């Protein structure tokens, strides 16, 4: 249905969005409750800074572990390189800013690397869990307008493969990133 259309082509224009009129007293009360319950923390983090920029900042300063799964652990530097290899693979597969990409498979480091890679190339992340039935995978990818499904396993689980095919998405195994040079953008 929407497969392959960039997200920006499917969003409502700003003028068509309703304006929420929240009374100032309600805003103040929400802030007060958040502060009272420890939900507000000032850590000096710039929320407009892309996540990959922060990962690479840590990578430049330290070599401590950033992420681990049952298969392996990566330092911040290794995670940044892995994300950049995935970005090269995604760009080679035609992903450009606004392209919707499903990322499917087990919950592994590769999913995080793919998310960071999509941030680098401007793609849009859509999850597709390996435990979902093929029909759900199809519906999620189709409704999101995904152009392709990046799978973290070299051998694509049947439900992901069938769901992607039914949604008209190409399936790209993440293993293809192993031979890619880190993306330079």
TrEMBL record:
It holds the Pfam family AMP-binding. Residues 59-162 form the AMP-dependent synthetase/ligase domain. PANTHER family: LONG-CHAIN-FATTY-ACID--COA LIGASE, SURFACTIN SYNTHASE SUBUNIT 1. This is Amino acid adenylation protein. InterPro entries: AMP-dep_synth/lig_dom, ANL_N_sf, ATP-dep_AMP-bd_enzyme.
